[in-house]
Write a structure and sequence with these properties.
Membrane topology: Single-pass membrane protein
Main location: endoplasmic reticulum
Number of strands: 0
Keywords: Endoplasmic reticulum, Membrane, Transmembrane, Transmembrane helix
Mean pLDDT: 82
Shape: elongated
Family: Belongs to the RAMP4 family.
Subcellular location: Endoplasmic reticulum membrane
Radius of gyration: 28 Å
Order of helices and strands: HH
Low-confidence stretches: none
Length: 67
């Protein structure tokens, strides 16, 4: 159960919405846009991941020939 102070604060915030008649936003909280991963950052990420996978495969193959 919210406290009396919280209820008064929410009533004060929403009191002005009565006169807006349907123009009230769905949420009073500000939404932040998600940071999109750019194509350059995606390319660097794929280069590191794929490059390290290829390097690991070559390393395993070269070590298996020594046995």
């Amino acid at each position: 159960m919210p406290s009396a102070q919280t209820m008064k604060l929410r009533n004060k915030i929403n009191r002005n919405n009565i006169n807006k008649q349907g123009k009230v936003p769905k949420s009073l909280m500000k939404t932040e846009e998600a940071a999109a991963m750019g194509p350059i950052l995606l390319g660097v990420f794929l280069f590191v991941v794929v490059g390290s996978a290829i390097f690991q495969i070559l390393n395993v193959l070269s070590n298996s020939n020594e046995l």
